[in-house]
Amino acid sequence: MNRRGFASGLVAAGLAGAVQAQPSGPRLQLTGRFIQGGYILGRAPPSALIFVDGEALTAAGTGGRFFVGLDRDCDLSTRIEARHGNWSATEIVAIARGDFPSQTINGLPAATVDPTDPDVVARIRREGGLKAEAYASRAATEDFAEGFDWPLAQFRISSRWGSQRVLNGTPARPHYGIDMAAPAGTEIRAPAAGLVALAHPDMHYEGGITFLDHGQGLITVYLHQSRLLVETGQQVARGQVIGRVGSSGRATGPHLCWRARWRNRNFDPSTLVGSLTI
Description:
The chain is mainly β. About 10% of the residues lie in helices and about 40% in strands. It contains 2 helices and 21 strands. It has helices at about 110-115, 120-135; strands spanning about 20, 30-35, 40-45, 50, 55-60, 65-70, 75-85, 85-95, 100-105, 155-160, 165, 170, 180, 185-190, 195-205, 205-215, 220-230, 235, 240-245, 255-260, 265. Strands 10, 13, 14, 15, 16, 17, 18, 19, 20 and 21 form a 10-stranded antiparallel beta sheet that branches. Strands 1-8-7-4-5 form a 5-stranded antiparallel beta sheet, with no helix packed on it. A hairpin with a 2-residue loop joins strand 4 and strand 5. The two termini are about 30 Å apart.
């Protein structure tokens, strides 16, 4: 597959440009993928407080750049405001509607779809706490602003981001990852620099999993690994090998499930691929 040719129906429809400026006053610099499942990248005075639809959610870094994720079911417009002392600027951004398919997956072990064993349920609860802590990581960096690569050199998309899944005949929550089929043992590389917020070798659902914190609450996640090559707390460089493709956890074959979240918003990591410069 041509790695940069894949856009999951999102990138082409949501390029930067759909910004409705306020009638007068200072302007915010904004770019990104303005579509459900995309993101907004902005520039404001360093340390400016950033409000999203009236809620203070982040702050510009020392370089003045800030990141906002757009989840799968976000509204079709969003209000971005930056405040720094007596300075403020606001933009209204039009958000394109995403195109999300449905997918049926059969043959999964019943225990991985709807576990009832008390020990397994307790394990899932413990692991949920570890994942919540990793998602809450807030590295004081702007690593996200240097752009992202695909984490695999060669792969086939076996499941698009945001698809509505039916598992063993039972409707499940949307799939907040891109499934990238590749041979077991394929190298997984950090698509951008980041801090390893969590590296766990064997979770019930995800198998071997790694969380990378790229700054300001932008977390990318790598599931079903056969081998982890980094440790929690380690700083990694863009292009560094962090693990190898496997089929651990809830999986029917070797692949990498790649996920992204900004604070509590799940978004499509493929929209990050390329330059994020502003």
